[in-house]
Amino acid sequence: MSHTTSSIDCYCGRRVVIRTTWTDENPGRRFLSCLHYDVGGCGYFDWEDPPMCRRSKVVIPGLLRKLNLVNGEVKKLEDEKKKLQQINKKLERSNKMLRRLVYAMPGFFFVLQLIWISFVAGKDEKEAGATPLMIA
Ligand SMILES: [Zn+2]
Questions:
Q1: With contact defined as beta carbons under 8 Å apart, do 61 and 27 qualify?
Q2: What is the pLDDT of residues 39-57, one digit of tens each?
Q3: Any transmembrane segments, and where (predicted)?
């Protein structure tokens, strides 16, 4: 129910408020009421708009129900979007870590190759040193 202020005063001397009702009997019909209508107020009430035709009383609530369904779907999609955005953030973090690993791989293999070469070279030197020299 929305409202704006009118230039008319209610029984308590305050400006009345223009509100809109969305009941099936009066969908979208505006009325004047006390500012404190929601909690009782002074009881001032008057219609701002004329009575609605029978067709409007059927069509407008139907449209409102469809609008509510669509809004519900939009809300579900927004919730799903938030979940997917959170998953996307996690995947981006994982992707960043994997990318760092991939960039570090050549360096890792280079060091591994140096270790292997020094191991093989050391083994060759041991074998060369262990072989007795045959001097005649
Ligand atoms: Zn009042």
A1: yes
A2: 989 999 999 999 999 999 9
A3: 101-121
Cβ-contact 16, 45 below 8 angstroms: no
CA of 39 relative to ligand 1 center, distance in Å:
11
CB atoms within 10 A of CB 122: 10
- Quote the ligand 1 centre to 4 CA distance (angstroms): 15
* Distance separating alpha carbons of residues 35 and 44, to the nearest angstrom: 9
29: CA distance to ligand 1 center in Å?
Answer: 20
Q: CB–CB of 19/49 below 8 Å?
A: no
90-107 per-position pLDDT tens digit: 999 999 999 999 998 888
Ligand 1 centre to CA of 1 (Å) is 18
Q: How far is the CA of 76 from the centre of ligand 1 (A)?
A: 41
Q: Within 10 A of 10 (CB to CB), how many other CB atoms are there?
A: 22
Strands across the sheet containing 27-33: 3-9, 15-22, 27-33, 45-47
Do residues 44 and 32 touch, judged by C-beta distance below 8 A? yes
Å from CA of 25 to ligand 1 middle: 25
